[in-house]
Amino acid sequence: MRNPEVTNILLAGLGGQGVLKASDIVADAAFRAGLDVKKSELHGMSQRGGSVTSDVRYGARVWSPMIPSGEADFLVVMEPGQVENNRGQLRGSGTLIPPDAVDEKLLRSKKSLNVALLGKLSNYLEIPEEAWLEAIRANLPEKLLALNLEAFAAGRKA
Amino acid sequence: MSQSGRLLLSGDEAVALAARDAGVALGTGYPGTPSTEILESFASLGCRAQWAPNEKVALEVGIGAAFAGARALVTMKHVGLNVAADPLFTAAYTDVEGGLVVVSADDPGMASSQNEQDNRRYAVAAGIPMFEPSDSQEAYEFTLLAVQVSERWKIPVLLRMTTRVCHSKTVVLPKPELSPAPREPNFVRNVARRVMIPANARPAHRRLREKLAAIAEWNEKEGPQQRVGTGTALGIVASGISAMHAREAAPDAAILKLGMTYPLPLGTIRDFAAIVDRCVVIEEGDPYLADAARAAGIAVESAPAMYRFGELDVARVRRILAHDESPEPAPLPGKPPELCHGCPYRTVFSALRDLGCIVTGDIGCYTLGVLPPFNAMDTCVCMGGSIGVGLGMRHVLPPEQARRVVSVIGDGTFVHSGITGLVEMVYNAPLTGHVVLILDNGTTAMTGMQEHPGTGRTLGHQAAGKLVIEDIVRAAGIRHVVVTDPVADPAGFQQLLAGMLERPELSVIISRRDCLLAAGKIKAYERAITTEGALEKCVEKS
Predict the structure, then answer these.
(1) Is the per-residue pLDDT at B265 higher than 60?
(2) Are A89 and A75 in contact (CB under 8 A)?
(3) Which of A5, A11, A14, A48 to mutate to test the interface with B (most CBs of B within 10 A)?
């Protein structure tokens, strides 16, 4: 059933943790690498401190913007309590990147954990580093840039 | 996010970009998930976008602009079209000069809505053409096309989107060259086509049916439907996001993807169904396409009833195609949303809970007052409904219960459609009186902190005329009006509410404190307005 040419990345956490921002960056990085990309999530009611997930899919051609249940290749989770309820979305061969994949002590701000976990994720993907850096620059305000570029680098080393 | 002309845009952003490229002169609407970002994005492109007090007013403003020859875009969520339905049905009888595109953003699965109504029914009921994009590229192209169809046949056009089209980002290649330049707005009197007294409306209705027949013919020959795949074992008819799920779920199937779904290209559907062994309609929500096909004598299969509820996805489409009606695995529950820690509404709902109130609620963040630890809401129906529903209860309940009824409504919702409820309260006052609690947090919080007439700032956060809520309340004839900050003195707030509940009179408490998430932004907007005002005065003096 699986379309081997599409990579599915599920990002999960709680409202306010930067799940959607992180998925914007992943989607933009893949887009800058010249791939077809679709990204999907729910806004509104779901964002008042509740569970938030965002699906990013990229490849030569992507149809549905939603990752079919149980077919995520990567699950990036920003909140320890959100691992178990999302684990079932990961396929057997998939990779879990839990919140402690990057040591928070290495980060200047805990709020940059989302971008640090993307650094970790980037090691598994064939998207060029320059595309990631451009995507980070394009999606974050100037004053938060240095902090997040450091976080991304810390994640890449983790 | 541009790369050699390609853009990565949400469906909402794509509609806004197309509206700009089509020379839309005015965008108006009311915030509502998942439609809100269309106008915000249209404004960020430097175009004229404004929030109306509600969807009905927005559509009326759009109709006026279109009568005057300008292109107009009116946006709302699905339930908003209920509010705007009155002008919609009669606008269909009129002749618009400039293109008039109405966006209805439906929310199958109710990610952030009170129902999952299928607004494709409105296109049929009102008799207006409808397009359904399946991704951001089509959201862009169909917006351009909707403007053209609207001007060619002088008819409003519905662009029906759904959550996954509005909020998914997909690649867009803009094609501004596809849009003919707009005309200059100019008023030309045309009473027979614009003044819908019965003598004019009777021929107008006949004209509407003629327009729709001509549009159906155009759709059949030149409409934006696509045929994919050459297989003949399985054929799928779909539109919108369902077509995307279907392509992934059934890569070997022949697919007829419809772009304009009212009036339908029934001849095309008939021909398609005839060449495949099995023809299945895949659609989210109501069996709209399937029923229309069957009514035209076309043999199609549709999904079992269980798939009418919630969104479709690839897995569900696979199940439909496999005739699988076994129970679906329930997704593991996540953490439900809650009122933010530090939200001023927390104090209010604690008081309502502790006083044992019967709370008729409304639409907004504060609907979360229904959840633990507050459990302090008993009804929620529609925008502005809290006041009327509360009054109805007060009229019929035994006095000891009636005296506990409180209507709770937010500032944005009050402006949207709470004012007429207040008029009803004064006009048909319950014997026990009534208490309305207006929760004014200075923003339309739930949809993402949009401005409204009560904030005194425009969509772009510039200074505007301000609707002062307490002035409106007093002008309606309510004598007991208290404005208070619940956080400053929670015990005092509870006492105040308890006191008002005891009196058989009409009372309104305006609980005023800025939304925790918006407070910083509100201060910055106000500072910018003050600075600008001061600068203008300097310029005037010099």
Answers:
(1) yes
(2) yes
(3) A48
